[in-house]
Design goal:
EC 2.7.7.43, CMP-NeuNAc_synthase, 2 domains, six-stranded parallel sheet, Rossmann fold, eight-stranded mixed sheet, Spore Coat Polysaccharide Biosynthesis Protein SpsA, Chain A, single chain, nucleotidyltransferase, 35% helix, alpha/beta
Length: 441
């Protein structure tokens, strides 16, 4: 992915501060670098925005996953004043900084909250403020930007995006004042392709040293920007942004280190996923379950793409053998019964097929599924699953169990597979163009 990085001029009188910052190196030449996501509970535009589900994942989860997989942070923190946000943060492996009431007001600034965090975490020497509302952030963005701090000796690096907007001076309504252009000559309007545009902060992340924060600066000292492509620059402030962001994330979001194209096997619970969990009784005492045709078509879609699907029933919530046989015939898939801990029964199958768990997709809907949901390369739960399962899954469906959730997850798996193929094709093309000898060898 091509990105552009440029340095900005240094503020007068800040040279000494930069030298001090570079003297803070540890014996091994490294400084403690922390990621900090500010997630206050009192969102005005979208209630509970930071933990609202976006494309199957809590908004906060997108940036936490990117931060963790970048493998450049010594610690990853979420600063919050809200209990539910704390639970979600911890479920994604982050540490939690409970901010004080003084920096939890509507009028509180990001800089004030970051300063409070650093006052309590003396070991942190470089902090990256990552915005929770930037769900298309990728690990590579953070890796490349941090190199500008650690290798090129910048004091602050922030993300920008290039915009091609012509700006005009705002005038008060009814004043009769004529507006004037701010960044163009109307007599010589440039074509888009003839104009480089302007760099605007996209708010995705801000790296800075402790010394700059102590000077009340988030972008101080020797500054640089990190240019991100427009497709990765997504911000969410009001409700109308949400569906647009969701579509962007499905196409350009970071879905983890597991390569979706290698998913070969999917385990899926019958009760609560393929069905709504109910067993219907007829007047004659016959037992029945209801299956959504969209879900069975989703299973067929996966089968056509070479993904083996195994349906699971539990001895804790048994499906009568006659129903299991009917399900197997109807779906064309094997139905097997698992015990109280499904992982114990499924591990031998994965090993027998000589697969890794990153090659496995798992769909569950209860507490007993948590270990499998965590272990599988791709995992999902229906919308109506309990919180403990939702927190463990990598994807939360918009549909409930028995109402199209399996079809939705199947489409998600295949979409990620297509994305991975496109990325591999792009990478191969780049290598072929830039390094032809490598391919010949």
């Amino acid at each position: 992915m091509a990105t552009k990085k440029r340095s900005l001029s240094c503020d007068n009188g800040e040279q000494d501060g930069r030298l001090l910052a570079h003297k803070q190196l540890k014996a091994d030449g490294k400084r403690h670098v922390a990621a900090l996501i500010l997630a206050r509970g009192g969102s005005k535009g979208i209630p509970q925005k930071n933990i609202k589900t976006l494309a199957g994942i809590p908004l906060l989860g997108w940036v936490l996953r990117a931060a963790a997989d970048s493998d450049v942070f010594d610690s990853i923190w979420v600063s919050t004043d809200h209990d539910e946000i704390e639970k979600v943060a911890k479920s994604w492996g982050a540490k939690v900084h409970r901010r004080s009431p003084e920096v939890s007001k509507d009028s509180s600034t990001s800089l004030e909250t970051i300063r409070e965090f650093l006052e309590q975490r003396k070991e942190v020497e470089v902090v990256c403020n990552i915005q929770a509302t930037s769900p298309c952030l990728h690990p590579s963005h953070l890796k490349d930007a941090l190199k500008m701090i650690t290798e090129e000796r910048f004091d602050s690096v922030f993300s920008v995006v290039r915009r091609h907007h012509f700006r005009w001076k705002e005038v008060k309504k009814g004043s009769g004042e004529s507006t004037t252009p701010l960044n163009l000559n109307p007599a010589k309007r440039p074509r888009r392709q003839d104009w480089d545009g302007e760099l605007c902060e996209n708010g995705s992340f801000y790296f800075t040293t402790r010394e700059q924060v102590e000077k009340d600066l988030l972008q101080g000292g020797k500054r640089a920007y990190y240019e991100m492509k427009p497709e990765y620059s997504v911000d969410i402030d009001v409700d109308i942004d949400w569906p647009v962001a969701e579509q962007r994330v499905l196409r350009y979001g970071y879905f983890g280190q597991a390569t979706p194209e290698v998913v070969r096997l999917m385990f899926c619970n019958v009760s609560g996923c393929l069905t709504d969990g109910r067993i219907l009784l007829s007047a004659s005492g016959e037992e029945m379950v209801s299956i959504n045709a969209r879900d069975t078509s989703g299973i067929c879609m996966l089968q056509n793409e070479g993904v083996e699907v195994v349906l699971l029933t539990s001895d804790l919530d048994p499906v009568p053998q006659s129903l299991a046989d009917s399900l197997a015939k109807r779906t064309g898939r094997k139905v097997m019964q698992v015990g109280k801990e499904p992982l114990d029964d499924l591990k031998p199958i994965v090993e027998q097929k000589k697969l890794d768990w990153k090659d496995v997709a798992y769909m569950g809907n209860d507490k007993r599924d948590v270990k499998c949901l965590n272990l599988a390369g791709m995992s999902a739960v229906p919308k109506d699953a309990p919180v403990v399962a939702i927190n463990a899954a990598k994807y939360t469906c918009q549909n409930c169990g028995g109402m199209g959730a399996i079809r939705e997850f199947a489409e998600h798996i295949l979409l990620q597979k297509e994305k991975a193929k496109a990325q591999m094709s792009s990478t191969a093309s780049t290598v072929s163009t830039c390094n032809p000898e490598k391919l010949q060898n």
